[in-house]
Amino acid sequence: MTGRYVGARVMRVEDPRFLAGRGVYIDDIEPPGTLHVAFCRSDHAHARIVSVDCSRARALAGVALVVSGEDLRDLPPFSTTIATRPEAKTGTRHMLPLDRVRFVGEAVAAVVASSRALAEDAAELIDVEYAPLPAVLHGEAALEPGAPVLHEELGDNNFAHIEFEAGDVDGAFAGAAHVFRKRFHFGRTHAAPLEGRGVIADWDVAEGSVTVWTSTQMPFLVRGMLAAQFGLQDTRVRVICPAVGGGFGLKVQLFVEEAIIPELSRRLGAPVKWVEDRYEALAASGHAKEVLCELELATDADGRFLALQGHYIGDGGAYLAHPWTSLIDPLCAASFLPGMYDVQNVRYSVDTPFTNKCQSTAYRGVGWTPGQAAREALIDDAARELGIDPLELRLRNTIPDGLPYRSATGCNYDGGSFAESIRRAAGLIGYDELRVRQRELRAQGRLLGIGFSPFVEQGAWAGAVAAAQGFPGFSYLDAVSVSMEPDGTVTLTTGLQSNGQGHETTMAQVAADELGVRIEDVKVVQGDTAGTAYATGSYGSRTAVIGSGAIRRAAGDVRDKLLAIAAHLFEAAPDDLQLADGHISVLGSPDKSFTIREVATAAYWGPRPGDMDPALIATRSYDPPETYSNACIAVVVEVDAETGQVKIERIVAVEDCGTVLNPAVVEGQVIGAIAQGIGCVLYEQLPYDEDGNFLAGTLVDFLYPTAPEVPAIEVDHLETPSPVTEGGMKGMGEGGLIGGPSAIVNAISDALGVPVDRTPLRPCDVLELVNRASRAPS
Amino acid sequence: MADERVVQLRVNGRQLVALAEPRTLLSDFLRHSLGLTGTHVGCEHGACGACTVLVDGRPTLSCLMLAVQAEGAEVLTVEGLADEDGLHPIQQAFRECHGLQCGFCTPGMLLAAKALLDEVPDPSEDEIREHLAGNVCRCTGYVGIVEAVHIAAQVLQEQAQ
């Protein structure tokens, strides 16, 4: 699919608003009479709550309400699982804990006051008496018999144990020439959008309805979950989502605070607002990607992969994020165990222990990031031991390009450029020359490293892909409504909520091409469940595929009506008409033409066919089949063996996401995700001490990469359109954070000549590897 | 509210007066007392740069300054960049270079860039990156931002000639 706009580097429609400071984010909204919330949060990792005394806080002038768990105990429990796996337990929690806290930062009580400052003052006056309990802070330890159990009603700490096997794994290992093993711990990280979470609720007791403003990627799912929580009809919950200051998967959960704030508004009959501070964001929103991966690879004498097996322990934190649960990391890691390699003997197991840490949530690339890092590091280790170039080893084992392929774990790839992406990346970065330069520099004592990470990523999280990734049991409904106004302009509404990706532009591109109008004639409306078509939201690289498919269908219906009306005006058959460049004309007679505006006006005011429904409006959905993008990222680093500093010299990414909607947007997604990958390998950390104290509560502890740390990342495009999706789009957006960290890890490993077994790789970690390298036999 | 002080200052060329508690941050004062919500707050501890404004021409983290300290000052926020002729050349360059995605860091980034170009009309790439090191962007990987500052420098130099 290409047109006037699809595929073009169109400047973003939404940018002037943001550039002028007129973007409206959650904290910019304040209904009249708004009261403000501050939470009192636990400073214990695991403790029994002996008592909560709110009397001093309640006595403070300006405080409207203080609630602790006891005050909310009669509410229905907060649901925390979708539990589509029979192996998974079912978990619920109280909105505020009744008798026990399970991580540092857990909300224990909430204060509502006339100002945020006053609410914070009052929160400090709440006296909580705790009786400390032993804490468990590592996933493996939490699985040990005798470990402190976080949720006694569940019996033990393991939310789900899942096993999978395909092919003859034992036979392949028994007959292998070589077996390689790796234990890789991917460190805890954080999506950390620059705008944190925020919720405002205004409960209308007279009407029995509630309006909730929240910064989310999924307004309609928030609506449905809150309606269920409060026993309201869907239509009595209106969710308004303003501009979202970054989501990256974090804002694809319903947070307990999103349920507490409406309840506070209900009790007070006034709008209530909470915008988290950075400590709350870092300590208590959602952590991600901490997975311990234990992998084994069997190969023949030539390095051909015979079998893979993996055990993934996802450190789930204290609670289950709603709805994806802590399976979102380890199960997704496992489902892509073979990645883009042709190996049909695969076995995995997954464990998801609770620990006394912040809950695990989705973050761009979810568990594919740690899974990719572990597998690709293992392949580099194998190449080193076999004496085969790591690119050559990969090329011997990739799935054939351009053909459908069913992976051992049941993913139906729709054709990709797996080998070509590796070769293209190698060519762009000058791989052969780099190896020569690496030897020259090494002779001078300088450590240059080259790392590659080729990967496949799912491109449209919906029923089919979700099932292939281990989350079966649901279909998804994602709709777009397209209506043409009397003047021929187009209004497009959808619940596929943008959180920075530029949907006001890319969706308008698709609609404009389909309807033959200019992009400035299309207005994309989102962010309000009371005025947009139902969709589950934007996450999992889905909106380019799903949104485009739904737009093409809906706009196609509108186009058919335009043609029928024009046929009436022309007294011609619709099949003899063409629609392009703002006009409908008779084929072969270009002088016989109406503007689209004229035809649209005729739909509303005539003349029009008497026997048709003239409404120029259509709402259509798209639940696509499985589709997968692929890419290869190559990184050159230089490691300073004295200081442990890693300098990234160059990054090249070759991306194939099928039909490209807007190359600027695709490149922005690739580059931005790679920058996050730099962060999670080299800078970001979320440590807890052995008592469970959280040690990264500020942005001076959790270090984002800034402009000097991110090089000028180069992006090149391959285009293998999907044969199975509407328009050939495959969807992308997460890959930079799937392949990026792995490529950096491999480059550092290559520079030092030793295996790497973890992230992050801060200077202290790199120095440890340098010491290991100096002890290793050369 | 007890103990409020009168704060007088010029913001985006307009003389304004409002009340502020002594503990009120300049960022909160701009956003909530003056209604200038284009200035964003990302961390409230001076680490992310989202709240950057120009105070008497100098890039300033408005979350690390009290409103009462801005008494008599000349403040420029993102709302003061564009004029009736349209976007400022720095804003225009950010659009052309895809230097923003979610837009949350953008106001602070624009003002940090303006402060640089006011001092150094033709900065090198390293100078741009070093100068912007106090401003976090979680979306773009900075590639479009750095390019935008380059382009804006060229446009502003041409305009100055």
Keywords:
heterodimer, A: 778 residues, Aldehyde Oxidoreductase, domain 3, Aldehyde Oxidoreductase, domain 4, seven-stranded mixed beta sheet, five-stranded mixed beta sheet, 20 helices, 30 strands, globular, B: 161 residues, Ubiquitin-like (UB roll), DNA polymerase, domain 1, 2 domains, 5 helices, 5 strands
Short description:
The complex is a heterodimer of chains A (778) and B (161). Chain A is α+β, with helices and mostly antiparallel strands.
Molecular structure report:
The complex is a heterodimer of chains A (778) and B (161). Chain A is an alpha+beta fold and 778 residues long. Chain A is 29% helix and 24% strand. In chain A, the strands form eight sheets. A seven-stranded mixed β-sheet of chain A has the order 3-7-1-14-11-12-13. Chain A has a five-stranded mixed β-sheet with strand order 9-17-16-15-10. A four-stranded mixed β-sheet of chain A has the order 20-28-29-30, sandwiched between helices. In chain A, helix 10 packs parallel to helix 19 and helix 18 packs across helix 19. Chain B folds into two domains: 76 residues, Beta-grasp domain (Ubiquitin-like (UB roll), Roll), CATH 3.10.20.30; 72 residues, DNA polymerase, domain 1. Chain B has five helices and five strands, in the order E-E-H-E-E-E-H-H-H-H. Chain B has a five-stranded mixed β-sheet, sandwiched between helices. Chain B is globular and about 50 Å long. The mean pLDDT of chain B is 97.
How are the elements arranged and paired?
The complex is a heterodimer of chains A (778) and B (161).
Chain A: H1 15-19, E1 35-41, E2 47-53, H2 55-58, E3 63-68, E4 78-79, E5 92-93, E6 100-101, E7 107-113, H3 116-123, E8 127-132, H4 139-143, E9 158-166, H5 169-174, E10 178-186, E11 198-204, E12 209-214, H6 219-230, E13 237-240, H7 256-268, E14 272-275, H8 278-284, E15 291-299, E16 305-314, H9 330-335, E17 346-353, H10 368-386, H11 390-395, E18 404-406, E19 412-414, H12 418-429, H13 431-443, E20 447-458, H14 463-468, E21 479-484, E22 490-494, H15 503-515, E23 522-525, H16 543-570, E24 577-580, E25 583-586, E26 589-595, H17 596-605, E27 617-621, E28 628-639, E29 646-656, H18 663-683, E30 714-718, H19 736-752, H20 763-775
Parallel strand pairs in A: 1-14, 12-13, 16-17, 22-23, 29-30
Antiparallel strand pairs in A: 1-7, 2-6, 2-8, 3-7, 4-5, 9-17, 10-15, 11-12, 11-14, 15-16, 18-19, 20-28, 21-22, 21-27, 24-25, 25-26, 28-29
Helix pairs in contact in A: 10-19, 15-16, 16-17, 18-19
Chain B: E1 5-11, E2 14-20, H1 26-33, E3 52-55, E4 58-61, E5 74-76, H2 89-96, H3 106-119, H4 125-131, H5 143-160
Parallel strand pairs in B: 1-5
Antiparallel strand pairs in B: 1-2, 3-4, 3-5
Helix pairs in contact in B: 2-5
